[in-house]
Amino acid sequence: MIFTNPAGAPELACDACGCRWFDRMRGTCYECGAEVSAESQAEFRRALQAFAARAPASTIAKPPPRER
Q1: What span, in angstroms and rounded, lies between the C-alpha atoms of 63 and 9?
Q2: Which residue, 24, 29, 33, 30, is CA-closest to 1?
Q3: What is the pTM assigned to this prediction?
Q4: Strand 22-23 relative to strand 10-12: parallel, antiparallel, unpaired?
Q5: Which of 1, 6, 9, 60 is the most exposed place for a label (fewest CB within 10 A)?
Q6: What tens digit of pLDDT does each residue of 11-54 get?
Q7: 11 and 3 in contact (C-beta within 8 Å)?
Q8: Complete DSSP assignment for 4-55
């Protein structure tokens, strides 16, 4: 499952439980242990590429403003 965060960037969520935290070494969800499918990973990579193509570079790596 892919959704868009408030900044407009795509985020991958577990298809089984909706969790956004994954063990990247094992390719599983931390919350429920479901495996992240190859199709979900490929869809997420395509969404990231599309986001990078339409977002100016200054908005992708822009750090948050410092509080004074």
Answers
A1: 15
A2: 29
A3: 0.71
A4: unpaired
A5: 6
A6: 999 999 999 898 888 989 999 999 999 999 999 999 999 998 88
A7: yes
A8: E-TTS-EEE--TTT----EETTTTEETTT-PBPPHHHHHHHHHHHHHHHHHS
Question: Residue 4's CB: how many other CB atoms inside 10 A?
Answer: 11
Residue 68: the pLDDT is: 67
Q: Token pair of 57, please? A: 């570079």
Residue identified by tokens 């990579």 is: 45
Residue 34 and residue 19 in contact, taking contact as beta carbons nearer than 8 Å: no
Enter the tokens of residue 30: 């931390």
Report whether pLDDT(1) > 60.
Answer: yes
List all residues 6 or more positions away from 48 whose beta carbon is below 8 Å from its beta carbon: 9, 10
